[in-house]
Amino acid sequence: MRLVAFVGTSGSGKSHRALWVARENSLDYIIDDGLLIHENTIVAGRSAKKAPSKISSVKVALFIEDDHRKEVKEAIRRCKPQGILILGTSDGMVDKIAEGLELGEYDQRIYIEDVASSYEIEQARNTRLKQGKHVIPVPAMQLKKQFSGYFLDPLQLFRRKGKGRFQTIGEKSVVRPTFSYFGNYTISDYAIYQLVNYNIVIMPEMEKITRFRTSNSPDGLYIDIDIIMVFGYNLVEAIKKARNVILKELDKFAGFNVNVFNVNVKNLIMKKTPPDYPVMEGS
Question: Considering the domain boundaries, does residue 238 fall inside one?
């Protein structure tokens, strides 16, 4: 197994270029910030960018915790990679990761200055410092569970194949970690209720929600609602429609991963009451 280190200071654009560097060096796996990644898929581990503080994020990135380290080591043994690209902020960091995961010596070390200009590195640092944005080299869908309720911006990654021709080589995601200098944010249960309720009452098949319960856990939402429906519509189709619309809106709202969504029909009415909801100013 080839082992290659990719070294650059924090915010210099390593994760942004990780997929390209891995492909150019025929490496099929990436280790970045506590995650083992294969072809845009998280195989094992957890993201250091979800840690509550900078200190704990470093511990995750270095695989300090026994269960985290064991999970990734077992995944590597099981998957038998041909080569792994390990990202780190210094030679010492990538050495500690290789030692902790018992991967042996590096065959090669690539530095961010080898693959990016000083201007590109400075632009990446400005984005980190001014906007608090971090890149993870996997699609947003892969991160939904670990980053439920956080803003995930998917970015397509292309490689030029000729004049005017590009080949898609993967997707990466931009996140703002919980330890961002820009502070934390929370989404209240009432805000979730308002979004769900609005999408229910505007449907001609639905009358209203009579009971709403939600639990926002670290790995996603649990939603349980009781509704009153309008007589004359196909009940099953109407519920499927409502569920699909609400899941789409929750995803657009804040990238929520919904683990459970129960809809209980408690009553029927013969005629729908016109919805009474406030109109946003300027709409």
Answer: yes
End residue of a domain, out of 151, 175, 199:
175
Amino acid identity of residue 176, one-letter, is: R
- Residues in the chain, total: 283
pLDDT digits (tens, 9 = 90+) for 173-199: 445 554 444 455 567 788 888 889 989
Which of 279, 28, 16 has the alpha carbon at shortest distance from 156?
A: 16
DSSP state of 33: T
The band of 140, judged by pLDDT with boundaries at 50, 70 and 90, is very low
- Host domain of residue 219: 189-269
Average pLDDT, the chain: 79
- Tell me the two tokens of residue 138: 């996997």
For residues 35 and 138, is the Cβ–Cβ distance under 8 A? yes
C-alpha 255: how far from its chain's center? 8
Q: Are residues 207 and 127 in the same domain?
A: no
Last residue of a domain, one of 140, 175, 210: 175
SS3 (DSSP) at 96: helix
